[in-house]
User: What shape does this take?
Amino acid sequence: MVIAAIVSIALSFAALSILKIDPRSSTLMNLILAAVPIIILILSIYIGNRLIYKIPFSTQVAPVRKWNWGIYIKAFIIALIVYGIIMSYNFLASGAKITNNLPIALVLLCLILPIFQGFGEEFLCRGLLMQTFGSWFKIPIVAIILQAAIFAVLHPYQLFSLISVLCTGLVYGLITWYGQGLETSSAMHAVNNIASFLAIGFGLQQGAGGNGSDPIALLINVVIVVIPVIIVLVLDKFNLMGFDS
Assistant: This one.
């Protein structure tokens, strides 16, 4: 599994290098192109696991049960509401203005592509890598920390943005371990990326890493990631998420 992960990461970075894409660029098209190699991760890891290790695809997304679309949709809606409220408040409070007019085709791409990109990253970090580290060390928190560190390294942003990515990886790792599947983290990751794509596309955010030197932005980013997870945990206490199904 590690070989499949290494090959997948290498192919992704090779594609970025060949296409001369900088994932930190504030250009929306560069961000879109940078997402494509991440999506390739799904196919390359799938092929590697099937050909080399004979591991079913399903064990990487939900090791103890089948993939549950109900969980994914609920988590997606929860994250969408939280992101919508917080980002709308920030937009109105800051007095920011939309500086770009995106064509409908690009808007649709910003809504669809991040869903697959988010799943690709979750499949690699919270699926393949976290399960591999878990099988090695037998201590869940070690696996969660290690995959989060790799997740952060794969996002070459400035300091505070890098810390934000690390915290996101830890939170997504914890909810993946708790729910025993990638549905929740994949849904929340998709919403996160959609928000980022649209913010950059409409000129409301400079670059995929956001403001890398702003501790306030770091705090907001962490809060906006943590709140949907807390809501999911509360709902699960009332058996409303379906983790046990």
Remarks:
- The chain has a mean pLDDT of 81.
